[in-house]
Specification:
The chain has helices spanning 2-34, 52-55, 62-69, 71-103, 108-119, 126-137, 142-149, 161-189, 193-201, 206-230, 238-244, 250-253, 256-266, 270-299; strands at 45-46, 57-58. It is an all-alpha fold and 304 residues long. It folds into two domains: 1-38; 49-299, MetI-like fold (Orthogonal Bundle), CATH 1.10.3720.10.
């Protein structure tokens, strides 16, 4: 019995260092993530900054009822879902394909060079990236200059409701697919090489080995990543959209996050903006729990 207690004490002492290392991160999380959650009370009030949270009038579900009665909210929700789903699906497909092709490069220097070039856009903020995108896709940008030189008509990518959503999805995938491929590359390296050797001995070509060996080995990770992405489906990328959109493309480019920003901060309707954000968060939690169950059922790996 004493031996068991001593073992537990030793284990707890060894783990104490890890808890101390985690402490700054936990404090940061409490201050900047949990403490501001007190502000959700504003969504049930007619918040007036001069009166504060304690002095503002309590109105219950008034803002939520008004929100659900707005015709624009369904259009904005649709935009959010279309943009977010497009990013998730296309980014996953391209990241998986890129990881498979990158794994076939045997020259280490070339492989590392390609990885560096493709991963780099992930670390560039959308403030800078938006400037690059505008230079490329504006009416006087590089892409339209190429179109003009080929005798083709210019396209207003940043001002057309038909082209703006594909532009958002395409540029986001270009920026993130390289970084997203890291985990898929790790999943490929975890596949038993003996399976590839056995398939090759049976006469399987490269594509057949990819289809019947590599992809099945990646399926659990693909499903797990997709489940995690679904939980954030109502966050279609505020930084990107805010830096690229304009009133010309509100019809297809306005998403929930930008709507909350305009209504809550620009128009100073703090309570209504908080109500929109809270409803979005509740839906996100429901999707996260559902995604966790789906990941456990199909991938046999839960998120938490």
């Amino acid at each position: 019995m004493d031996k068991t207690r001593n073992t537990r004490k030793i284990r707890h002492r060894s783990q104490a260092y890890y808890h101390v290392m985690m402490l700054p991160g936990m404090i940061f999380l409490l201050i900047f993530s949990y403490a501001p959650m007190v502000g959700v009370i504003m969504s049930f009030q007619e918040y007036v900054p001069a009166k504060g949270i304690l002095g503002s009038e309590w109105v219950g579900l008034k803002h939520f009822k008004y929100l659900l009665s707005l015709p624009d909210i369904w259009l904005i929700t649709r935009n959010t879902l279309v943009i977010s789903l497009g990013k998730i699906i296309l980014r996953t497909v391209i990241a998986v394909m890129f990881a498979i092709l990158l794994n076939e490069i045997k020259h280490k220097f070339l492989k590392k060079s390609v990885q560096t070039v493709v991963y780099l856009p992930h670390f560039i903020s959308w403030v800078i990236m938006a400037f690059i995108v505008v230079n490329f896709f504006s009416l006087d940008g590089t892409v339209n200059a190429i179109f003009s030189s080929l005798g083709l008509e210019k396209m207003n990518f940043l001002g057309s409701n038909k082209l703006f959503q594909p532009l958002l999805i395409g540029t986001d995938v270009w920026k993130e697919f390289g970084y997203s491929s890291i985990i898929y590359l790790a999943a490929i390296t975890a596949v038993d090489p003996g399976l590839h050797e056995a398939a090759a001995l049976d006469g399987a070509g490269w594509w057949q080995r990819v289809w019947h060996v590599t992809l099945p080995g990646m399926v659990p990770i693909i499903l797990l990543n997709s489940a995690m992405a679904i939980s954030g489906i109502l966050s279609a990328g505020f930084d990107q959209v805010y830096n690229l959109y304009s009133p010309l493309v509100y019809e297809t480019g306005d998403i929930l996050d930008t709507y909350v920003y305009r209504v809550g901060l620009i128009s100073r309707r703090y309570s209504f903006g908080t109500a929109v954000g809270l409803l979005k968060s509740v839906v996100g939690i429901i999707l996260l729990v559902s995604a966790n169950k789906l990941a456990g059922k199909f991938a046999h790996r839960k998120i938490f």
